[in-house]
Amino acid sequence: MAQQSDFFKRLFGFESPEHTAQKAESPTLDEPWRELDWGEKQKNLKYVQEYKPEQDDIRYLRVLLYGPVGAGKSSFINSVSSVLRGRMTIPALASATTSDKSFTKKYETHKFNKGRGRAKTFYPLVFNDFMGLEDGTNRGVHADDIKLALEGHLKEGYEFNQVAPISQDDPGYNPTPSADDRVHVLVCVMSANTPQMNSSVLEKMKSVRETASDLGIPQMAMMTCIDEAYCEIDKDLRTVYKSKYLRKKMKDFSSAVGIPVNCIFPVKNYSEEIDMNDDIDTLILSALRKMVDFGDDFIEKAEMAAVGAEDNNMEDNGSAGEKDHKAASQPEGPKLETALQIYQPGNSHTETSSAMMDNLGMEQDDGDESSSEKSTETSFAMMDNLGGTQSQNGNCDEGMEQDDGDESSSEKSTGSNTDDPSTRSRLRDGWSNLTDKLPTLAKLEQSNQTTNSERLSFSSHFKPPAPVVKVHYISTSDTFGADTAIMKQLKNNLKSSVQLEETTRRNCSIIIVFCPVGLNYESEVKSAMEKEAVSSSGKPFIVVLMHHTRHPDYSTAECDVSEVLKNVFYVHVFYHETKPGLLECSQNARAIKLIEDVLLSKK
């Protein structure tokens, strides 16, 4: 047959109709339409395993999975976990039956274990699984819930409500999401074995995609069940990119949802297998590497935008400072500080000024009788400092400068006695002017109902704020929230002496490095010290060596890091995931006190 076809082609310049028909009917292409190196499994695995976000305030690259019911989201999470750990695992419960009801009911974060036993940590890559999108209204997860999850507003364990999306007063709502809570990659999971997707589900997917686009979040799609959709792939997984059916399916999905074809990846989840398969791993790792790249690009872009905004704020503050300086050089109206400078303890004033000081809780010296002769002069001086105008006839006008007048009138005004009716009239007018300028003090004077027990001293009422120490902290691995608990405890313990302000590495005055350690403590500490955020910061830092243990009397004698941490201040603390924060023990109390002493030295 082949010889006849070749003869026909040489004779007429084209192949025989029979051969052309046979070729057109072939379900596969001669060459793959997308290149994939099936021998790069180990290379891609190492790439994913060694990834760490560069930004200090982001511990995990967060991937959000969404899609129709039964698309294989939970199975994909299990497959990724198996690939990373090199053995079969099932961190996410998945349903083996086909149903139009979603198996996932809660918003969960799936972390992937790295290492075993005491040395167990987590990869800096997490997946959030969502309730499936169901056909019709009030069914499945609300698109609004997915939108809020993109911004980090859903807390771990939030139980989905099919009737209504989450509200801001719900306990599962996070009002102040951090950069670590936000989603960095949005991944749509759909089955290649689905004949046609319902229009209502497609509309929900488009709505989610539009929100992600507005937030600048990169988007991908995983096409699962490829072995069920095309029998040739089930026989040989390496024909995946030769399948005409699969290529058309991906193009149709791209047109329907709007995700580019080069962002759609066919994968096969582990379902029937009990042992690992290199070809399955290769497809999953190919997609996983792109997730890491896309997410890391988004994190870097967000960081650059934040730095740019910070620089703009500094410029704006500089401009505002120049305006304030110019404004300060111009004549101003009366200020509260001016009046308070006059009413210092030990001075004598008129009955009115004494009452005002009394209401402010300020002590007044009794003085002698001669001091009352100076009260009028002091009152006029006070009004003069506040900007009141004293004219020749003794009345206080609204002007800001004092009329020169003649010497005789000046002598009369300063030499007046409070028994003189005209002097009392001038004082009343002056006090009225003063209360217009200082409404707060006027209110205090007019109320005059504060008892001695309720009065505050001037010094306590106007107590200056505690100095600020700007701190930036980094966690080199998962601490089960112990790092956050430590920072909260430090803030609370030091609040009367110093204000701890969490800020960026660029603006901080000291860095705290939370470093969970296990059996390989030396390499873990070295790795922490080599992080760019620490090694290139040029800032002093504290290293908190965190030991994962249940025992408060755990010994750290074997964890000798003195050579690794030469000239570096470090402490040992104990924590465990079953107890929030740190264990209650003397070792942790001493460590917290030592950290506090270092922070106090920075104020």
From TrEMBL:
Region (Disordered), start-end ranges: 309-332, 359-378, 384-461
Biased composition (Polar residues): 411-420, 445-460
GO BP terms, alphabetized: immune response
Biased composition regions of type Acidic residues, renumbered to the chain: 398-408
Superkingdom as given in the UniProt entry: Eukaryota
PANTHER family per UniProt: INTERFERON-INDUCED PROTEIN 44, INTERFERON-INDUCED PROTEIN 44-RELATED
Protein name: Interferon-induced protein 44-like
Organism (species): Xiphophorus maculatus (Southern platyfish)
